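Entry:
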Amino acid sequence: MIFGVIWISSLLVPEHVQHERSGGHIWQVIKQPQVMALLLTCFFIQASHGPYYTFFSLHMESLDYTRFSIGLLWSLGVLAEVILFFFMHHLLKLKSAGFWLFIALFLTTLRWLLMAFFSDQLWVVLVIQCLHAASFGMFHASAIHLIHDFFPRHRGRGQALYAAFSFGAGGAIGSLYAGFLWDKVSPAVTFGVAALLAFVGMLTALRVSYPVVAATE
């Protein structure tokens, strides 16, 4: 439902008249293979975060972590993300956004595998939380950079599509399968599925090239 509302809203966002006159229709951009690959990558990585956002605190409590330490772990993830954002513009000068997108998916896959099998070890959990810099910070910065290049004359709609595929559809599907598998199977299997989704997203990210070809606009 949320995905549908965001999708419809993205199509209703008016673009600047000058942009519409000088550029083609947004569907000419969306149908490009790299664009579809990017949107699918956004979906897969956000869907892989479902177990983390839904059950991380509960999982840590079940492993006898205190609520205070769990709060610190959440804070560590946010801190790592902020530090990454601070340096991301330097990284984008060294390698393309497509390259960092792939690295973000690779590290996200590793993150969920560690969560599935080693979350009872504190030092591993600290690494897992530091990897939030990649699974959220690096991914988000790279994806937005690519969205801006894919949609130079439709950036508002491009960002709306990004939100729809990632936080909308990906977030909804992620919470759905996480809730089902957590109770009926096990936390390890749930995070294993998250790792699989991130891995599929990583393979999909290989189709995203940079700089983005937007000549059809």
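Confidence is low (pLDDT under 50) at residues 1-13, 15-23, 210-217.
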